[in-house]
Amino acid sequence: MLPIFILFFLLAVAFSAVTTIPFSVSFLVVSAVIFKKSWVFFAALAIGLLLDLVNIRPLGYTSLAFTIFVFLIRLYERKFETQTFAFVFIATFLGSLIYLLLFSYNQAFMQSFVNAVIGILLFKFLWLKLGLRSEII
């Protein structure tokens, strides 16, 4: 499992640095929903710092946004059923939209939609790979 996580971590940073679609948001949403562990906060911090370095922004802006986003997902874990396609889609879409608007990207709505679809595919892949309960999906 660790090699898959490291691979997705590196791919999320690389694709987010090369394109304007924030793949790291979908990675963080899926990680927070599936694993429900505190190390996701550290992953959000690391991804944010790496993206700030690559995009030549002041250090900490992206990591602060990602950490707050993961905190909100973990906060509403008990209130909503988080391990569903609908939650992953909506959380990824809203997180991407806020991220893109916060950092002034163009066509934020379309990029957020594409990222939400990618988040659903990543969620389905990891769900099947880990062999979790299939009745929720």
Key descriptive features of the protein:
globular; 137 residues; single chain; mainly alpha
Describe the structure.
It contains six helices and no strands. Helix 1 (2-18) packs parallel to helix 3 (39-54), helix 2 (23-35) packs antiparallel against helix 3 and helix 3 (39-54) runs antiparallel to helix 4. The longest helix is centred in the C-terminal third of the chain and has 23 residues, at 108-130. The protein has 137 residues and is mainly α. 74% of the residues lie in helices and 0% in strands. The mean pLDDT is 89. The chain has helices spanning 2-18, 23-35, 39-54, 61-75, 85-102, 108-130. The chain has one domain (2-130).
Low-confidence spans = none
From the N-terminal CA to the C-terminal CA, the straight-line distance is 21 Å
Oligomer: single chain
User: Strand percentage, roughly?
Assistant: under 5%
Tally the structural domains.
1
Report the structural category. Answer: mainly alpha
Amount of helix: over 70%
Average pLDDT level: 89
Number of helices: 6
Q: Which outline best applies?
A: globular
Give the number of DSSP strands.
Answer: 0
Rg, Cα atoms, Å: 14 Å
Order of helices and strands: HHHHHH
Largest sheet: none
